[in-house]
Amino acid sequence: MLIKPTNDLRWRDVTPKELYLRRREFIQAAGLALLGSAAGLVSPAQARAQGKGAKLPNVNKSSWGQGETPTAYEAVTTYNNFYELGADKDDPSRNAASLKPRPWTVSIEGHVAKPAKYAIDDLVKPHQLEERIYRLRCVEGWSMVIPWVGFPLRDLLTQVEPTAKAKFVEFTTLMAPNQLPGQQRPVLDWPYTEGLRLDEAMNPLTLLAVGLYGEVLPNQNGAPIRLVVPWKYGFKSIKSIVRIRLVDRQPKTAWEKSQPSEYGFYSNVNPEVDHPRWSQARERRIGEFLKRPTLMFNGYGDQVASMYAGMDLRRNF
How far, in Å, CA of 128 to CA of 207, rounded? Predict the structure, then answer.
């Protein structure tokens, strides 16, 4: 049969623009799903056997996430958002060697009674490390389950004694274009900054992570220390932290400064509030082919919903 050509066919009739522009990401995600299905999950013991990283000593197992199936180690460490090491999902693992996580210092500043500057090992040493298996939901629509190792942020904040003026916590990533090649391009207003309300920072779920799968945190995952806020989209969990500052006003965050209509300050996982360019109602767990429903607050509502009582979560997105 002869098909008559037409000039009326438009590109959006074939493929939605946002899906076309994100085709590489989709192909990578699909490939990782097949990898997870074919290769199975990588246990901590297998990861250590493969020489992935130094084992962290004296780590307590917590009850968080027991019964959940962790995402494959290979996926967790090769499919990453870390724009300082590159914008594509495989860039962080390819460029990871350029980041030098030692020596490293973290300063605690602002409205605290005991400001301090810690070498990373001195900061971590007083705290009991524990493994918590948390779900991670990224704003693009994919998710993982990761066994993080760290300690509650509130333990550190209590140690420096926030004053009555402290209302928010601002975090800043290392600024070092020679180590973080992504900073050589004006993708964002570097250095990367993030923020939490003080009660969010003091919530028992909020973690300062120094490892995953029982091992030292890989560079591509935010070594040597990063934030993990499991009820918020992944970009809120800032990596490679060098400064924590307690402030009296809501800080401007990196993605909020870049695209305020798409990335608000709160960025709580909410299936009822879509991203302007795609739905947030469903997600694709890496290692699975079919999508699953997105859970309000990523499933942690019992622990965090009370902090937002009375707030309009569509306006405060």
Answer: 12
What is the tens place of the pLDDT at every residue in 174-195?
Answer: 999 999 999 999 999 999 999 9
- Bridge partners (DSSP) listed for residue 143: 137, 285
Q: How far apart are CA 68 and CA 114, in angstroms?
A: 39
Q: How far are the Cα atoms of 208, 261, 299 from residue 314, in angstroms, in the given order?
A: 28, 12, 18
> Where do the domains of the chain lie?
14-304
> Above 70 in pLDDT, residue 259?
yes
In SS3 terms, 11-67 reads as: HHHHCCHHHHHCHHHHHHHHHHHHHHHHHCCCCHHHHHHCCCCCECCCCEECCCCCC
Q: How far apart, in whole angstroms, are the C-alpha atoms of residue 138 and residue 98?
A: 25
Q: How far is CA 196 from the centre of its chain?
A: 14
Name the architecture of domain 14-304: Alpha-Beta Complex (3.90)
